[in-house]
Structure formats: C-alpha cells, structure tokens
Write a structure and sequence with these properties.
Layout (H helix, E strand, L loop, with lengths): L1 H12 L13 E2 L10 H6 L8 E3 L3 E5 L5 E11 L6 E7 L6 E5 L2 E2 L10 E4 L7 E10 L2 H6 L15 E6 L1 E12 L6 E11 L5 E10 L5 E11 L3 E7 L2 E2 L15 E9 L2 E10 L4 E3 L5 E3 L2 E2 L4 E3 L6 H13 L4 E3 L6 H10 L2 E5 L24 H15 L5 E5 L9 H12 L5 E3 L12
Parallel strand pairs: 22-23, 23-24, 24-25, 25-26
Antiparallel strand pairs: 1-8, 2-10, 3-4, 4-9, 5-8, 5-10, 6-7, 6-9, 11-12, 12-15, 12-16, 13-14, 13-17, 17-18, 19-20, 20-21
Helix pairs in contact: 4-5, 6-7
Length: 443
C-alpha cells in the first residue's frame, strides 16, 4: 500500500495532470443506470442484492500542497475470478472538489469537474485479487476557470459512488421516448438499445422490455434476438404503438409516467434488469423563440435551482416552488439522478445545464481571451456537454439543454459544443445566452 501511495505521489508532484500529457481516458458518456439481478429489486432500487455492486467510500490517506495535489482518498476491493466475463465500471459523484482517478497506481483520467456525476470504464486497469482505486483531489487552474461561481450542496463525501460490473455481452446504453405517431392519434414507443459485445467471438443476446400504463396495466412487451460480431456494438430498435395514451400526455400539470423495464436474456436465462419511467411528450421550439410541447408554446415561469442536500429535502423544495407557480427549473450544472426522477414524478420542467461558468473576460473574443475561445480546452468543453446530455437524456422533465451558465464567453469551444449536441438529433432546444445572437443557440 505504501509503495502505491509513493508512486501516486511522485506522479502528482511531476504535474502529470496537463490535459496534453494524459493519454489514458476512461471517462464515458452514457445514461446513468445500474443493472439489478431481480425485477423486484429494480422496482424498489435495492442495490444490496446486486451480486457485482461495491459501494465506494474511499478514506483519506494524506493531504498535501505539493504541485496541483490537495488530497488522496483510497479504497481497496477484491476482483474475483468470476469477473473475467464482466466489464467493470466506477461511478463517481459528491467528491466536493475537482479530481482525477488512479487504479492500481495508474492514472486513468484527466482532471474531472466536481459537478458532473461521471462513469468510468476500469476493466483494463484491474487485476484478479486485490485492487486499489485512488480519488486524487486536484487544484488545476484551467478547471477553476470553468467553474466560476458554481456552488454545490454539501453532501456526505462520496455518497452514491460505487463500482459495478456488467457481463461482457450486455446493454451499453439506451434512448427511450414516447412520441406521437405520424397521425397524432396515440403514442409510439421509440426504444433504442445499444448492446456491447466485448468477447472476441460472435454472440447472440435476447433484449426485451415490458411497459405498463400509469395505472399499472401491462400494455406491451417484446423480446428480440440480436447477433453481434466480436468486439462490436449494435443497436436494437423497438417501435410499438401505445394505444389509449392521449389522456396520459405528460406535462407539469399532468405528470403521468409509464413504468418500463429493460432486460436481457441468454439461453433463456434472465440476466439484468434496468428500470425506467417514461413520459409521453414531444418537445421542440419555434421561430418566435418559444419552447413547445406537442407543438404548443409553453408558458414558463423559470427559477434557478440546484438540488438540496438530499432527495427528501429537494422534493419538498420543488413542491413548494411549484405551489408558488414556478413550473421550470434551471440548474447551474448536472444534478444527481434522483433530482430528474423527482421532477419527472412531481411535474416540473427542467432546462439542463453543463458545468460551464466562466464570466471573467467573457467579452474577450481573442484566442485564449476567454476559455470558450481557447482551442486547447475543446475536449474539456465537449466532455462536459456530452456527459450532461447523455446521462439524463431519457428524463421527460428535460425540455432543453444549455451549453453553459449565462455570459460565459463565446467562441470555438461553444461552437463545437453546439454542433456536438445537434449531431445527436434531439428535437429539444439547445440554449446558450452567451451566444448573444450568434448561431450556436436555438433560442
């Protein structure tokens, strides 16, 4: 253990956190989800029964002021032989500071902002037997330039951090919508499931789902086979009609949800359950600069709001805001997963925002005059924006996406961020007040 800490410390002192120097990058952008072993556990979010789920609560090893390092937190865990057929991931949030990750003494990420809950793929860095993960708190000048004025609620450090493993033939990501059919008669489910085959051989997997109406009645289910070549990903699409759905159109006034469970099977054996809640809604925007729901402009009474210290307090505060006539929340950065679930259930619109805030020198359009026009920060902008989008894309409460907070400068990085979000083909508006009339904002 001491040898590992010394190795980490020497790397830190050597200032290897430059975004130019780091080649390893385990960070991934996808929907935030956990796979459950049993359907009943999936419905109630019981994680203690998940076979390959490890709560992460690393403990403080030392603090320092050397270089960019401020502290190192560490936890050891065992990887049994049974994990050979699994892909391992780690989920990090509530660190309270910018950080980077080491696994078994190897740095696997560039600096990560403290505000965006993030998943990392760690299988290539694991050994059979004892392994060690280190969360290293860093103070990088370029990171603080992007976080000006952002303040996160003080929660218990490393709350909802965990390591989990999925089979090497499993769901990698998914996109789900309930949208009107072409004649606007009823809903049509648009469920795209991306499956990953990390084996070298061709494999067959069965992907299934079932969906219930808001009253709890089973209304549709299906199971389809998918054959994947070795080391590939492919997407399986389901598009069934959901009849008698118009009374259940989701809005802040009518927040009805359809419970949907996604699962996989192999050789007739059920493997993993992923629970979802889907709302019937179609968002867009018009030439008048208004956000629309089913083509009708929404009358929004907006309020800046970030999640409180826990979900119970947050739900009380959101309900209180709604009682005062607030129907749209604008957080300053990506929120905990449960925040969006509360907004789906309570019925309040959300304009999601990437963790970008850099008002200082926002009007300086010279190269490097503002972080938004510093090409060497392009990848950092794209990572923050894509992670914001991917992890919460399936929540019906989200009506638009913001590239950043207010006047945070404009330029090359914000242009690229806008283009990236547009490439996903989402009908929801992309907003950036700092565009000041330029093309990289829909409203």
């Amino acid at each position: 253990m001491k040898r590992l800490l010394v190795r980490i410390f020497l790397l830190l002192v050597a200032a290897l956190f430059s975004i130019y120097d780091l080649t390893a990058q385990a960070r991934i952008a996808r929907t935030e989800f956990v796979c459950y072993d049993k359907r009943e556990d999936a419905k109630r979010d019981i994680r203690t029964n998940i076979d390959k789920h490890i709560a992460l609560k690393p403990t403080l090893q030392f603090e320092t002021a050397e270089g960019t390092v401020r502290a190192v937190y560490e936890q050891s865990f065992d990887v049994p032989a049974g994990w050979n057929d699994y892909n391992a991931y780690i989920h990090i949030e509530n660190v309270g500071a910018d950080y980077t990750l080491f696994v078994n003494g190897e740095q696997i990420t560039s600096p990560i902002d403290q505000f965006t809950p993030t998943d990392f793929y760690i299988s290539p860095y694991l050994d059979q037997g004892e392994n060690t993960v280190a969360v290293v708190i860093v103070d990088e000048a370029f990171m603080s330039l992007l976080d000006e004025g952002l303040v996160e609620a003080t929660r218990e450090k490393f709350t909802n951090c965990y390591i989990f493993a999925q089979r090497r033939l499993a769901v990698y990501d998914f996109n789900v919508r309930l949208l009107p059919d072409t004649l606007d008669r009823f809903a049509q489910l648009h469920l795209d499931v991306t499956v990953d085959n990390s084996f070298s051989t061709n494999e067959v997997i069965e992907v299934g789902y079932d969906i219930y109406d808001p009253a709890g009645k089973l209304i549709e289910y299906s199971v389809n086979d998918l054959t994947l070549e070795g080391f590939t990903r492919d997407t399986l699409s389901f598009k069934p009609y959901i009849y008698h759905s118009n009374p259940n159109r989701w809005s802040a006034e009518n927040p009805k949800l359809y419970p949907l469970t996604l699962y996989i099977k192999r050789s007739g054996i059920l493997w993993e359950y992923i629970p979802l809640s889907v709302g019937f809604a179609e968002y867009g925007y018009n030439d008048a600069g208004e956000i629309t729901l089913f083509g009708t402009p929404l009358k929004l009474n907006k309020c800046s709001y970030n999640a409180a210290v826990d979900s119970a307090t947050t739900e009380r505060e959101i309900k209180a805001l709604k009682a005062k006539g607030i129907n749209c929340l604008m957080p300053s950065y990506p929120q905990p997963k449960w925040f969006y679930a509360i907004c789906d259930r309570v019925g309040i619109y959300v304009i999601d925002t990437a963790a970008i805030s850099s008002p200082t020198n926002a009007s300086n359009r010279n190269v490097d005059g503002t972080p938004a026009n510093a090409p060497w920060l392009e990848e950092e902008y794209l990572r923050r924006v894509e992670t914001m989008y991917r992890r919460a894309q399936n929540h019906v409460c989200i009506i638009a996406f913001r590239l950043g907070n207010g006047a945070s400068g404009n330029g090359y990085n914000m242009y690229r961020a806008y283009e990236l979000l547009k490439s996903f083909g989402d009908s929801r508006a992309i907003i950036y007040e700092g565009a000041e009339g330029e093309w990289n904002s829909d409203l």
